[in-house]
Amino acid sequence: MTNSAAITQIWIDDYLDLLNYAVQIGDSAWKEEIVQTLKQMNVPDYNPVQELKVQLWQQYDAVIHEMLAVYERLRKSTANEDRQAEEALWNLKQRRLYIARQLKRI
After folding, report:
1. Which superkingdom does the taxonomy of this entry point to (predicted)?
2. Which of 15, 38, 74, 79 has its CA 20 to 30 A from that of 55?
3. CB 60 within 8 A of CB 99
């Protein structure tokens, strides 16, 4: 990746983070402003909302894989480890719900 391509990618990633935050707080005017800014870039066929969806689905998939690993650990665990695994599962379930809500808002 060239230096300018790397800088462009960083800029896009930063704006996608802002877009994600705008969706989280429900600021549709700011969301549209960010989308328009991203569309004005000279990136062919670039769809920022689609890119955000892809990122969220990747995060969702990662959480699911982590949950499966914790379930596997839970099956092999002792009573003391059960509590830690249950807490980890609860946190992962909360994260999964949070991502799912973001996906519904887009």
Report:
1. Bacteria
2. 74
3. yes
